């Protein structure tokens, strides 16, 4: 049995992995797939991949690409979520802010530098026509840290996947002022160079299994109720999320990667554009 360490956020996007693990689908292929939740998100996952603490990650596209351009020995094995991620833009429910435009020159809470919450603040600022050099950040590590920061006033706004934060909006902790969708497929499956060299057969088996699960995921009877119960979401929110989310079973193409890199360089978040073969494993 080959042990493979995989990491991802504890969010509804990743339920197909948990179902496959629980049903023994990877074990049938001789793979002991060990999942670890990383609530801190992409920045932390990039660090763990770099340190060799994980073989695979389900990770945000833009954060991973930035990390690879900075020397992280990782490649994109394939796309995982084809559709954009909807980043909700949140403030404390008690704040006086009522529109995204009012957030100019205020401080954004981010999980860590290089995370999606960090990089998407630049995309959001560009969308609003703000000077990205004026952006200010407060590192909060995770969602709980963001709640504390916005409540205590050490940061003004926080960007996170809108359905994950929806319960906090419903509870009157956060107020959502708007959304900012990623301009590209949002999640990819990343693999370290070492794993690609040593475990190519294992990777093929893993991708075959997860692609089967994701292709049939929406057809599972009452999957909306399962998701709502497991992730403590309202059923109507999960149904909306399912309606706008599409999993991928395909490699990322060079044109999509070029779009990601060009946007990151336009925002001055990366210093150079790498050839696609240095980022894509195919």
What's the layout of helices and strands?
Layout: E1 2-8, H1 15-22, E2 31-37, H2 42-50, E3 56-60, H3 61-69, E4 74-81, E5 86-92, E6 107-110, H4 116-128, E7 136-139, H5 143-152, E8 157-161, H6 162-170, E9 174-181, E10 187-192, H7 193-198, H8 200-216, H9 223-230, H10 235-244, H11 254-266
Parallel strand pairs: 1-2, 1-3, 6-7, 6-8
Antiparallel strand pairs: 3-10, 4-10, 5-8, 5-9
Helix pairs in contact: 1-8, 3-11, 9-10
Any overview of this molecule?
With 282 residues, this protein is α/β, with parallel strands linked by helices. The protein is built from 11 helices and 10 strands. Helix 1 (15-22) crosses helix 8 (200-216) and helix 9 (223-230) crosses helix 10. The mean pLDDT is 96.
**What portion of residues belong to β-strands?**
15-25%
**Spans of at least 5 consecutive residues with low confidence:** none
- Biggest sheet strand line-up: 2-1-3-10-4
Kindly state the number of beta strands: 10
Q: Enumerate how many helices there are, as a single number.
A: 11
Question: Keyphrases for this structure?
Answer:
10 strands; five-stranded mixed beta sheet; alpha/beta; 11 helices; globular; 282 residues
Summarize the structure.
The protein is α/β, with parallel strands linked by helices. The chain contains eleven helices and ten strands.
């Amino acid at each position: 049995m080959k042990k493979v360490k995989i990491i991802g956020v504890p969010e509804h996007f990743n339920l197909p992995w948990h179902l496959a693990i629980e049903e023994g689908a990877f074990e049938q292929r001789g793979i002991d797939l060990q999942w670890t939740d990383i609530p801190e998100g992409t920045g932390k996952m990039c660090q763990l991949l770099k340190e060799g603490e994980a073989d695979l990650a389900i990770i945000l596209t833009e954060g991973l690409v930035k990390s690879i351009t900075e020397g992280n020995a990782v490649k994109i094995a394939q796309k995982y979520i084809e559709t954009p991620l909807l980043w909700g833009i949140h403030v404390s429910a008690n704040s006086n802010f009522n529109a995204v435009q009012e957030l100019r020159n205020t401080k954004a809470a981010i999980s860590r530098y290089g995370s999606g919450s960090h990089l998407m603040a630049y995309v959001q600022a560009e969308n609003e026509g703000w000077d990205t050099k004026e952006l200010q950040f407060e590192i909060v590590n995770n969602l709980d840290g963001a709640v504390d920061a916005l409540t205590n006033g050490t940061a003004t706004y926080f960007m996170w996947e809108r359905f994950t934060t929806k319960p906090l909006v419903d509870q009157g902790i956060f107020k959502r002022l708007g959304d900012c969708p990623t301009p590209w497929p949002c999640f990819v499956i990343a693999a370290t160079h070492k794993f690609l060299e040593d475990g190519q057969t294992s990777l093929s088996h893993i991708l075959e299994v997860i692609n089967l699960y994701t292709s049939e995921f929406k057809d599972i009877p009452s999957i909306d109720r399962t998701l709502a119960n497991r992730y403590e979401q309202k059923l109507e929110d999960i149904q909306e999320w399912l309606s706008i989310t599409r999993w991928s079973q395909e490699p990322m193409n060079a044109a999509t990667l070029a779009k990601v890199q060009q946007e990151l360089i336009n925002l001055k978040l990366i210093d150079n554009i790498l050839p696609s073969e240095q980022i894509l494993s195919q």
